Amino acid sequence: MNDLIQTVLIYALPVLFSITVHEAAHGYAARYFGDYTATMLGRVTLNPIKHIDPIGTILMPLLLYFSTSGAFLFGYAKPVPVNFSHLRRPKRDMIWVALAGPASNFVQAIAWALLLVVLVATNVEERFFMEMARAGVLVNLVMWAFNLFPLPPLDGGRILVGLLPTKAAITFSRIEPYGFFIVLALVLLGIVGTVWLRPLMDIGYSVINTLISPLLSALQ
After folding, report:
1. pTM of the predicted model, to two decimals?
2. pLDDT (tens digit, 9 = 90+) per residue, 97-133?
3. Which stretches are transmembrane (predicted)?
4. Catalytic site residue from 23, 125, 126, 131
């Protein structure tokens, strides 16, 4: 029980930051490109309460954690509402709005990695903070990679819709009402993890290591 509480505490802050900044980034990008829907609904904010979905952010991850002994976790936040027709150039701008969320997670992963470097450099040996920094990198890389999966309503699906020719984009976007269930099935079958998440996360870790290696060398 103590291990569970400690794990929850270690991951709580990274998860809250990852979902809050992710959703806010969509809202900021949408506003920048002309859609004020999220702003009017109070969703362009770093207040995590505005983005938490009681089922997707809290109940589902906890149930999955206990039912699989921590082997499998899945959750989601309340999506930021975006009216793509309000964007100045809807087909092009939707790519940037969708990309803003995963991009924010990758930036956060780098920030947590830098924090870990600072902790090591300053000889901070408190396990809790070290594990939290590592969790921050992991959580954000998972959010980054998973949301780029090319199936709507995930961000990667929206990006693909924006990149496809108009006729193909309209046809592909019809998958969206069923997309969540398709993705969940692919996750449970292990396809998303094996074919998409692991390879993309390996790339993510490699990029972060390349970026922070000069800093690590300078501190040695």
Report:
1. 0.90
2. 999 999 999 999 999 999 999 888 888 878 899 999 9
3. 55-74, 95-121, 133-154, 175-197
4. 23
